[in-house]
Amino acid sequence: xxxxxxxxxxxxxxxxxxxxxxxxxxxxxxxxxxxxxxxxxxxxxxxxxxxxxxxxxxxxxxxxxxxxxxxxxxxxxxxxxxxxxxxxxxxxxxxxxxxxxxxxxxxxxxxxxxxxxxxxxxxxxxxxxxxxxxxxxxxxxxxxxxxxxxxxxxxxxxxxxxxxxxxxxxxxxxxxxxxxxxxxxxxxxxxxxxxxxxxxxxxxxxxxxxxxxxxxxxxxxxxxxxxxxxxxxxxxxxxxxxxxxxxxxxxxxxxxxxxxxxxxxxxxxx
Length: 270
Description:
Helix content: 40-55%
Oligomer: single chain
Structural class: alpha/beta
Radius of gyration: 17 Å
Largest sheet: 8 strands, mixed
């Protein structure tokens, strides 16, 4: 499995495993043996900010103490995935909600703007948004810009369109289904281009959403989420992929993918 260019992580906020059945583009790629898919369990509570932290540290919210979107970010975890990538000499980038900047770039949203060129620390370069209505198409364009400009070994692309539609209309609505299908088409086009450039791509979610548009409980609607990996893994990477059952295990899987990157990403200037 060649990942010479780096790893791209696409995090689709608010996408449950059930809703992923509307994602015909990604599923078509899996059926063409271009990638693999499985379902895993999210951490608890299934709330965005706590699970952002869990996904990239492997630490459950009940352990980190980050139990709501309004809680203060925990102290820096030196073993977070972005930090591990930096230790490997890889550049890190994010096109994502501003909470990722606060969690991993450690910047003050009140004194710094959307565009971050820190060139040091765990999360080096970023384009952050704070409006949940920020279009998925724009997030993907932001991510492509960061990739072309900085040649990162690890890139996060975080979209909010699906989650926003769920909160507004509920997951049983036409609007939600349209948001999922639109995200599928946009993300798949972006993914196809990254694969052709030699990147590995992982696609997953933070949590699902109940039909009411709410999340934070223990139902399967909220806690069963999809996981895709491209290209289709083999050998030890296939074993690592198959071994992930819970969201906290994704950090270990992504670390294995970064090891496959080796020195393929261009390191950021010190």
